[in-house]
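Q: Study each token:
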Amino acid sequence: MESFEYLDDLFEPVLVAELDESIAYFNTSFLTLFKTTPRLMNKQTSILEYLAPIIPDFKDFFNNVIKHGQAVSPETNFFFEGQMYTLIIKGVKKELDCIILLFKDVTVEKQLNDKYRAQLEELKNTYSQVLQSDKLKVIGEMTANVSHEINNPLTVAVGNAELISFCLEAPDLNKQKENIEKYNNNVTHSLERINKIISNMKDFLHKSEDKKEYCNANEIIEKSITFAAPALKDTDIKIDVKVNGPSPILLVNEIKIEQVFVNLINNAVDSLKEAGTATPKIHIELTTEKNGNFIRIDVSDNGAGISKENRDKIFNAFFTTKDIGKGTGLGLSISHQIIQSHQGKLDLIDSDKGAHFRITLPAIGIAGLVNGNWEKLINESETMTRVLVVDNEINILNLCMNFLSGSDFSFLGAASAEEALREVERTPVHMIITDLKMPGIDGENFVRELRKRNIEVPVLFMTSKDFVEKYKTMKDELDLKGIILKPFTKDELISAIGAIIK
């Protein structure tokens, strides 16, 4: 017994058992944990008879320690003396033919963790409600003049429908065929415009807040300007958009990013109206920088700007420079959080005149590598099979990303061969799937450049059946591993990748 007295100095509960299951020693902390006394413990003849009724699966754990020499239990919950406990048990078999069991009481930590998770979930729900509230505010501003936006194409549709009815009253319908087709096309076009206005608003209000897709940055901005159009009515404010180079592709939640731009544009409009600027203007500029790794989007105006005393508070929740009832103080705060959730930055830039905001977002290569899953990247970075898909069609990239979601393969996307070449220099990839026909550098010359750089990554061509013969002529020369024909299914894509990887 004396050889185990040092265990009394430990804070953790400890119990020593012989291989015949008899209890050899226990420290004071063990007595405290199980709310017992030395006299009662000394009456116990078997550790299994004592602990197995209290701790679930304890018998299996004890036998596992005997068999393997040591073992650590998972978090084990049990109900004892009217209270719920959570323990982690470590067992070690010693040379003295005894087993030392250390009991780690993590009840408090577990309760705090559960409480933290509950509070975090509550905060997420609250944030979602605030985000939805801000979206409803934006929708309210948009719908103020939405009847005007819809009435224009509706008037055209009604008028052309009436013209069609006049044509149908003519004695010779064959002579009216061309006019009827023209008026019918006008009706169809007008109805499509109305449907697009309504559809965009419904998407903005209801679309998923979590799903990210490949999107054209310029198209997002143009749609945001359309959303903000009611605020521009009866003003001289002009919005000009400048794209330096090809329009960049982003991996983002389109609806959230649109919400950011609508907030920035509406704020600029309000500022310009209040300042009474002679030639009011909002300037939006898109630039790809740092070797194509980041997309910079500047939104500026020539209004009164933001005062020095307010610059440090501009992104704080509920801070607003607008009159009571005209602003919630949430727009910039929510926009800041949305951009941060996309691994980007929203900054207020020093400006001689007006307000200047800058959004910086990762290009699709970096965004695709992470895509919100930092934990997977950290824990499985060495074992992840990365598949780079190269196609100038955004819909194809989104399709492949969705197909590979949840599979054994990690998806990366590039909208051009130039982006793909930067990607393979930055990130180790295990396989490349490339479209054959692309603007700029096509699939053939892309692979030739890879081989020129001694990049021997397996390549699978993705194209239509019209290019099968061309594929055959360069298969051996470029060491191509196969071809997948559009359209293809999820199973076909995963099977093609699996066959080459294995």
Summary: Residues 358 and 466 are 45 Å apart (CA to CA). Residues 324-328, 372-379 have pLDDT under 50 and may be disordered.
